[in-house]
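User: I'm new to structure prediction. If I give you an amino acid sequence, what do you actually give back? Let's try with this one:
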Amino acid sequence: MWETLPKWFWVIYYLFLLTTLGTAFFTLGIRKIKSLSFILSGLSVIAILFTLIIPIISLIASIGRKEGMNEFEHLVSQLQQGAAWSIFVTIGYLFLLFWWLIFLFNIMGGNIFALKKNNKVG
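Assistant: Good question. You get back a string of structure tokens that encode the predicted 3D arrangement of the chain. For your 122 residues, that looks like this:
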């Protein structure tokens, strides 16, 4: 029997991917707002591509893993051996985390500036 990560992990993982995908599309739709820059729109396109490609590559690469090894252990093992797919997937995950930080910083920054303008007028 093949080992796998717990169900709660997969729920969080796919919620993260779906939320990222939805938020990236949302960002592309509201790029006319001044607080969202043109760069964030470009990063959103890359985030969409990574969100779609990473799970497919991980699934295909995990098919050949050794028995008794879960997906994360396989990724780390392949990363230590320098497998191209594991490096690409790791860069993709790091990019998605970076994209979320940029997105949240941009959204929070826009809301904070809007509150300051309202307080000065009122």
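You can read the tokens as a compact description of the fold. Here is one thing that stands out. The chain has one domain: 7-121.
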